[in-house]
Design goal:
With 280 residues, the chain is of the alpha+beta class. 29% of the residues lie in helices and 24% in strands. It has a single domain, classed as Oxidoreductase, molybdopterin-binding domain (Sulfite Oxidase, Chain A, domain 2), CATH 3.90.420.10. The protein is globular and about 50 Å long. Bound molecules: the ligand Nc1nc2c(c(=O)[nH]1)N[C@H]1C(S)=C(S)[C@@H](COP(=O)(O)O)O[C@H]1N2 and molybdenum atom (MO).
Length: 280
């Protein structure tokens, strides 16, 4: 029996119970179409480890379990957005992300813009971990990327920085209509340009930002991150649930609070009722 079976029985039982109770609603919980009130209530129940509980029971520096190569799932599925809509992102894919840059700013001394090449020469970490989605699926995969703390060391957070916010390329304002696919792409680009915070976003506190397993991953199982898993760069925050692992990273910003950022709850799914601290 693998260690995963022993250590995560309560969580699996919980997820199975959620699944049994809410069936289809649970299945599509990460689809933006599903917004079942009942399911959200379960997510908000005490079964999820909140920030205080995590600190109390495990310590904020405790490590998520790491696995061995043999544990890696034959394939790592994709979930949520599989390809951001828009000519902007399409253009980046076509140029193999040569023109993509990660902006890092907000409450920092030295804002930065990093290309994929810049990131690939920075110190890296490889970790084999289990991804847990609230839909009730898990998968073990190997991730390689830059520990976020190296980037923070370069930009130097100001003393009042409390949270790191991650902005993604995928628009979450659903107003695709009968227009042609090309018109929809242009429309989506225009919406994102006019409302930069209408995209998927996530956040974490400084404890998680400096945690050594918090990495900005560019490789999945030893190969460049596929588009469906968040190319060119996605977050791994191993001690929290799947929706916290923002894909298609475009911008990182440090803030003192979430006031004025979209719904004010620190993430796309959080604004729709999920817990901000999705501890596992
Ligand atoms: N930008 C972005 N990040 C995202 C999502 C998304 O829809 N858009 N979905 C989240 C959810 S719910 C999960 S489970 C994981 C899925 O990652 P994967 O597609 O690599 O399996 O990404 C998370 N990060
Ligand atoms: Mo998820």
């Amino acid at each position: 029996m693998k260690p995963i079976e022993q250590n995560n029985a309560p969580r699996r039982h919980f997820l199975r119970a959620v699944f049994a109770a809410f069936g289809a609603a649970a299945l599509s919980a990460c689809d933006r179409l599903s917004n079942s009130k009942a399911f959200v209530d379960v997510l908000q129940s005490t079964q999820y480890l909140n920030r205080g509980a995590h600190k109390l029971f495990a310590g904020r520096k405790a490590m998520a379990q790491e696995f061995i190569e043999a544990d890696i799932a034959p394939s790592f599925r994709s979930n949520g957005t599989l390809m951001p809509v828009g000519k902007l992102y399409e253009g980046m894919v076509n140029s193999n992300f040569a023109n993509w840059k990660l902006e890092v700013g907000g409450l920092v001394e030295t804002p930065l813009a990093l290309s994929l090449a810049d990131l690939r020469v920075m110190p890296s970490r490889t970790q084999i971990t289990r991804h847990d989605c609230v839909e009730g699926w898990s998968a073990i995969a190997k991730w390689t990327g830059v520990p976020l703390h190296h980037i923070l060391d370069q930009v130097k957070p100001l003393p009042n920085a409390q949270y790191v916010v991650f902005r993604c390329a995928d628009a979450m304002d659903d107003d695709e209509d009968e227009a042609s696919p090309d018109e929809n792409k242009e429309k989506t680009d225009a919406v994102v340009a006019a409302k930069p915070d209408s995209t998927y976003y996530e956040s974490m506190d400084m404890d998680d930002a400096y945690h050594i397993q918090t990495i900005l991953a560019y490789d999945l199982n030893g190969k460049p991150l596929p588009v469906s898993n968040g190319a060119p760069l996605r977050l791994r925050i191993e001690r929290q649930l799947g929706y916290k692992h923002a894909k298609y990273l475009m911008k990182i910003e440090l803030f003192e609070s979430f006031d004025g950022i979209r719904g004010g709850k620190g993430g796309y799914w959080e604004d729709n009722g999920y817990e901000w601290y999705g501890g596992i």
